[in-house]
């Protein structure tokens, strides 16, 4: 009795965490398998990443309640990497990305990922979502998807036409559509029913339907857990001689890190427990990816779907995510043959649903109404990922974000007040940099030469050397025709550099 009491005192939230771990396990199981199949790797590797994300990352400090594992957001990138460099090289890429994350965490760079434009991140997820949806629609019909994102989208009408003429393709497509329908409608069912995660229910119902009606639908190929784990060998490390692989490693690192840390910020808003320590969380993700790389498994990120399920199920400590990893391990060890019953179009349906949720429709509409420039960055990033590839699409988005920031920082407004008599008043506000000079000087030089001018700089936040020099030169030219000297008012820092000597007719007040 005393032992039981001491255990309760040591783990006061064990009951809540135990219950939450079962919910997260049921949510994670179909997603781990679905992400692996969609990435073009053995299904068991998705379970391996889920196990590492639960047990290894779950034990490390950083974020106490967010759950890590294979993510739909990296599906496209993993598929491209495996297609380009082969499955053995995947472990090398993931290992290198994990080591980079560890280094960035040690250098305390984790917090700086929060400075990445939210529009770029949401645009990245939207682009990934579009590519996932397009690719998995082919998989749902049992067809081979084209390689590029544009080809996937452009080829959909032809793919549906081909599917319409094939009984096997129609049966497969029906299973995929049914899976999506179950997941969408599951949220409208009574609360007791919804204790079973929608993804798991959809897979189970699809599996039952396939076997009940003997549908000609492909199922998951099972290789066995130990056979699927292939640590990278010397030949795989030889791929590092290819320059292109370093771009892929950087893409894995940046995207996985950004997605994990943005997820951590979102999870922190869902609970009142300890806040995320971003540098430690980045190192935890790095340790997990290093471990996955050694095992030749999929890369991992923190996953908002599992993390929110963990919080909503009542988890209080990191024990829930560790236990979910234990349940995945037990399933992979004791029931691996159960994977062979899962229809592939059902997994495609789960990924279509996940891809749809990655597209921030409401955010785009809200941004377009209030911050149109941010909306443009989001849309361009998404389209670039579809049209080019993941890495270059994100770089385009980041470049646009930097350009927009530079533009905003150099925003300068000139207001002219001319009452018809007396001096013309010119009010400058914003940030006066060389980027705004052509427009400002054009407006000032258009003022009547025979009228005195009062230039008010009090609304300026910044005045760079180029603008100070140009405004001083303009003031001298305007006053040289016999007009009263230009009067400049404003903060000392803005007005002081424009002081001129007495023979020059411009004066500063």
TrEMBL record:
Q: Where is the composition biased (Basic and acidic residues)?
A: 499-509
Give the record's membrane topology: Multi-pass membrane protein
Which keywords annotate this record?
Membrane, Transmembrane, Transmembrane helix
Transmembrane residue ranges: 20-38, 45-65, 85-107, 119-141, 169-186, 198-220, 240-267, 326-356, 376-403
Q: What's one Pfam family here? A: Sulfate_transp
Q: Give start and end of each SLC26A/SulP transporter domain.
A: 14-381
Where does this protein reside within or beyond the cell? Membrane
Domain of life where this protein originates:
Bacteria
* Main localization category: membrane
Region: Disordered; residue ranges are 478-509
Which PANTHER family does the record associate with it? SULFATE TRANSPORTER (PTHR11814)
Q: What's the protein name?
A: SulP family inorganic anion transporter
Recorded source organism is Streptomyces ziwulingensis
